[in-house]
């Protein structure tokens, strides 16, 4: 796990860019494995229909498979102790895997509670599988419809 954390710390620094790279700690505080769905809604803008991300809905597990929290709209991550961090995207990079959602670096914009998420300052989403918006099926006959696309990702949480 430590090699994964160090690797992703370097990735995070590269994604965040020079201005933010100096702020990132050199190692992550902890990692979680997300498994769930990315929920998309079929929306119309003018005469164009497109799938738009509504929210993620995933469980977060540790390396042994024990559920330690959840990931949901915000984007938010909540630990089993009730503490929550909400992030704002700093940078995105396409996943090397076709059909996978991008890798992200996010900065904490708010916290709730005094548990494990209270001191998280950065979140990195990497090693994504699946979760990309559907390529078709969003049209006038499906406006308002939802699609739930399975995905997996590794989340790295950095403390300040």
TrEMBL record:
Please verify whether the record's keywords include Cell cycle: no
Keyword presence, Signal? yes
Keyword vocabulary terms for this entry: Signal
Signal peptide as annotated in the record:
1-21
Q: Which Pfam families match?
A: DUF3455 (PF11937)
Put simply, this protein is called: DUF3455 domain-containing protein
What is the originating organism of this protein? Rhodanobacter hydrolyticus
């Amino acid at each position: 796990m430590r090699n994964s954390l160090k690797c992703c710390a370097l990735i995070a620094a590269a994604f965040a860019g020079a201005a933010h790279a100096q702020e990132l700690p050199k190692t992550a505080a902890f990692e979680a494995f997300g498994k769930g769905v990315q929920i998309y809604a079929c929306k119309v803008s003018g005469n164009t229909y497109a799938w738009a991300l509504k929210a993620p809905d995933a469980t977060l597990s540790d390396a042994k498979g024990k559920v330690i929290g959840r990931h949901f709209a915000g984007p938010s991550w909540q630990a089993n102790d009730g503490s929550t961090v909400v992030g704002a995207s700093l940078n995105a990079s396409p996943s090397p895997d076709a059909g996978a959602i991008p890798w992200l670096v996010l900065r904490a914009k708010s916290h709730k509670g005094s548990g494990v998420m209270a001191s998280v300052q950065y979140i990195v989403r990497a090693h994504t599988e699946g979760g990309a918006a559907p390529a078709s099926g969003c049209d006038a006959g499906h406006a308002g419809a939802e699609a739930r696309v399975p995905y997996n990702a590794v989340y790295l949480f950095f403390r300040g």
